[in-house]
Structure formats: structure tokens, C-alpha cells
Design a protein that fits this description.
single chain; mainly alpha; Four Helix Bundle (Hemerythrin (Met), subunit A); 6 helices; 2 strands
Amino acid sequence: MGLKEDLANELESTRKAYFQLLQSVPQDFYSHPSANPAWTIGDVLYHITLGPPAIRVEIWMIRHARGLFAAVLNSWTAGIFNWGNALFARHPKRITPQILTQAYERGHVGLLISIKSMTDADFSKSVEYPESFVAELAGVVTVERLLHYIKLHFDVHSGQIRAGLD
């Protein structure tokens, strides 16, 4: 199996895990606190859906506009991203299983389309990732590493949800 297939399989496993988690959380629990002190369980479920489309944009920048990457991804844009996340997440009526399902599916399909369009050389293209944006990705980040981050992002946040359910 090649890198594209391995990455697609990892993304699919993460997608399945997200939907298993989503099905295991009663909607009444969306307003309960998670282990993330800033967000409820619903907030975290919503935040997870933002990962795939955000990663897709970042991959595009690495492949096609590396100079833009450094100009755009910084603590200021991190603040805007977090503000936008909170804007939608803080309105529990906007967060339903249907909306979460549709949002994750769109992002997942978009990533698969991106992977199919890439050459082998694209996966090793890299940029310096600012710690102020996402500490777990600080340093040199390849497109491949960024795609693996989808699983790490899910694992971290699903742990926050599970801890909130306990």
C-alpha cells in the first residue's frame, strides 16, 4: 500500500471514530463541561469538525503559496480562528448531530480530494509552523505530518469529551 492509501485509511479510521463518539454522546450532554476548561462537550465536538477543512487550506498553502503561510498563520489568525470557533460553538442550538455530521463529512471528503490530487513530492513539502498557532505542530511541518495531525487532533479532543462524560 502506498502513502496516499495509508493516509486515506488513517483519515477514514479517524472519521469512523468521530462518528462513533458523536453517536455515543446524547445531545442533552452537549452543554456539559468537557475536560477543556474553555469549552463544553458540544463546543469540542464542533471544534473537531473544523480540523479537516482548516488542514486542507493549510495543505494548499504549503503546496502553492508557502510565503503566504508565514504571513497568514500566526497568533493573530489563531485568535480569529478561536473566536470563530467560539462564535458558533457557544450557540448550542446551532450544534446538532446532523450539523456535526455534515460538517465533518464535507471536511473529510475535501481532504480525500486533496490527497488524490497530490504528487508524491507534495507530501514532503514543508513550512515552519509557528508555535503560537498550534503548539503540537511547532517546527517543520510536512504535508504528510499535517495529514497525520487529523488523528492527533481528534484523539486529544475526544479525550476531553470522554473525560467530561465521566
